[in-house]
Design brief:
The protein has helices at residues 23-38, 44-63, 67-70, 108-120, 133-146, 158-169, 174-181, 186-190, 197-206, and strands at residues 78-79, 84-88, 101-105. The protein is mainly α. A three-stranded antiparallel sheet has the order 1-2-3, with no helix packed on it. Helix 1 crosses helix 5 (133-146), helix 2 (44-63) runs antiparallel to helix 4 and helix 2 packs across helix 6 (158-169).
Length: 210
């Protein structure tokens, strides 16, 4: 399905579209994170710690949020019944909108993972996402190396770019993607609509246009 296009000329965006992970790359990285968390020969204390990193990874993967937003998630921000996570939107340029929240629908298996972790480690209920950012970045880079992810893509923010592209390719309207990502301006989101010449050619061929 083609991504919903921005009502205007994409030619005005001179910067190239952000880098993102391919389906194969994101799958390899997800398996690496899960394997790291599920490793058999580690102590329960270490598993408890790794579980927090696993949850932060999943939240980044499926919300498209900034890491600073994810590590601010509290237990009360998670709606287990409706599979939604409430995020405080950071980087708002308008002072009147600072402290605003947005609600992100997520796969039910994400909230299920959170529920399972908290059931196993109830004392972590209010601290599940409160990881040290620099430590998470270090683990992320190590698992990217293990997954053969190029160095220039080995940073947590790549998951935000990847989710944006994934949503647009699935046909989610750009205005909805803007809200989900917490962008204050549509032009910021519209950058993700830029495609490489090879991508455009493939879509046109698939649709019988060339």
């Amino acid at each position: 399905m083609l991504p919903t296009t921005y009502n205007g000329s994409l030619a005005v965006f001179e910067s190239s579209a952000p880098n993102f992970l391919t389906d194969d790359q994101i799958n390899r990285l997800s398996l690496a994170f899960q394997g790291w968390y599920d490793q058999k020969d580690i102590s329960d204390t270490k598993r408890c710690i790794r579980g927090r990193y696993w949850l932060v990874f999943l939240a980044l993967r499926f919300t498209g949020a900034r890491i600073s937003e994810v590590i601010n998630i509290d237990y009360g921000d998670i709606d287990f019944r409706n599979a939604e996570i409430r995020l405080i939107t950071l980087k708002r340029h308008n002072p009147k909108k600072k402290g605003a929240y947005r609600i992100i629908p997520v796969p039910a298996n994400l909230t299920g993972e959170i529920a399972s972790y908290i059931a196993q480690y109830p004392h972590m209920k209010d601290k599940a996402f409160k990881v040290d950012r620099s430590n998470f970045n270090k683990v992320f880079k190590e698992l990217c190396i293990e997954s053969n992810i190029p160095k220039e893509l080995s940073h947590p923010h790549i998951l935000r770019h990847t989710r944006a592209i994934e949503l647009l390719r699935a046909g989610v309207p750009v205005t909805i993607v803007q809200d989900l990502l917490g962008h204050s301006a549509l032009t910021t989101t519209a950058v993700y609509l830029k495609m490489s010449g090879q991508e455009a050619k493939g879509i046109m061929r698939e649709k019988g246009l060339i």
